[in-house]
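Late entry, pyrazine-2-carboxylic acid complex.
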Amino acid sequence: MNTAAKTVDVQTGDALIIVDIQNDFLPGGSLAVPGGDAVVAVLNDYIDIFERKALPIIATRDWHPVNHCSFQAHGGTWPSHCVANTHGAEFAPGLHLPPDVTIISKAATPELDAYSGFQGTGLDAVLRSLGVRRVFVGGLATDYCVLNTVLDALEQQYHVFLLNDAVRAVNLEPDDGVRAQNTMIEQGALPVQCRQLQ
Ligand code: VGL
Ligand code: ZN
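Prediction complete; structure with ligand written out below:
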């Protein structure tokens, strides 16, 4: 509905940010996002486009200590997930990350949760050093880490494209994903689909 049918020229100054495509967020994982596996193939198509143009590709990952405050056993909301250096925290094997991908680990201290790839990670400095002005953001989950990463990027004055065909929501409440998408768009993110990119 909000997706403009225009084409988008991917060019110098653009970067792809892939959010948290980790085993624990996919079916079979401890915090599986419904339909989360469906975004992997689409993200691979985005990766191809950015790789062919030699543009930066960033992959964020949830990288929690065993006693992280977001875990139910430690007073938080979630089952234990994405514990650093475990299988659940590994990137999905089907995701074709290039060898020169920049990996951004987040929420790695016990007492702080961080849904945004910008929070305490140096991502902003990385993007600035690469001359990035526009970011293309997709991954998991729409209503948590994608939402907060997009809002922070907008606040830091990046132009943001939301990869509408490459996000899925947790939906603790049924409409959380839709509400998150609307919020991102209201704040200035432009929704796109892979076929619009050239
Ligand atoms: C996320 C819930 C807990 C996410 C991370 O990546 O969206 N969601 N930790
Ligand atoms: Zn987490």
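The pocket of pyrazine-2-carboxylic acid (ligand 1) is lined by residues 20, 62, 70, 78, 140-141, 144-145 (CB under 6 Å). Will revisit in the morning.
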